[in-house]
Amino acid sequence: MRICRRRAIAKAHVDEVAPGSYFADMRSVGLKVLKNKLSEYVRLAAGGETVLVTDRDRVVAELNPPQPLHRKLSEDEFIAKGVREGWLTPAKVPPGAPLPRGNPVMSFEEMMKDLDESREDRYDAREDR
């Protein structure tokens, strides 16, 4: 009875910790060993493994398998991807539709005069003419 109790306690204790590494399919290598056996670790990465590079027991880099090349998206696919991912907002006016009419705030001449007045402190506008 006493032995079973110890096994139950030992088993419960072992279940609380990870018995192995969380990165079972990853290898870890120090910088010195990597330098001496670089081609071996590059072959492992090319074969699909991820190799963690450590310096003084701290992970500083990863060697990963190459990622598949991405083909260049067409303009329509690029726009659709942007809208889908939320970093592009489509125009509200459909292509080819006339722009909405509005009353101009000021004429072009008034706007240029206002711009010249606001820039007077920077330079003499008469020098450019």
Which descriptors apply to this entry?
alpha+beta; 3 strands; 5 helices; about 15% strand
Describe the model.
With 129 residues, this protein is an alpha+beta fold. It has a domain at 22-66: YefM-like domain (YefM-like fold, 3-Layer(aba) Sandwich). The protein has helices at 2-15, 31-36, 38-46, 75-85, 108-118, and strands at 26-30, 50-55, 58-63. A three-stranded mixed beta sheet has the order 1-2-3. Mean pLDDT is 78; it is low at 9-23.
Q: Give the uncertain stretches in residue-range form.
A: 9-23
CATH fourth-tier homologous superfamily of the domain at 22-66: YefM-like domain
Portion of residues in helices? 25-40%
- Quick check: average pLDDT? 78
What's the alpha carbon Rg, rounded to whole Å?
33 Å
**Estimated share of beta-strand residues:** 5-15%
CATH uppermost class of the domain at 22-66? Alpha Beta
Q: Give the beta-strand count.
A: 3
CATH fold descriptor of the domain at 22-66: YefM-like fold
- Kindly name the structural category: alpha+beta
Give, in spatial order, the strands making up the sheet with the most strands.
1-2-3
**What is the CATH architecture descriptor of the domain at 22-66?**
3-Layer(aba) Sandwich
Order of helices and strands: HEHHEEHH
The count of helical stretches stands at 5
The main β sheet shows up as: 3 strands, mixed
Envelope shape: elongated
Terminal-residue CA separation: 105 Å
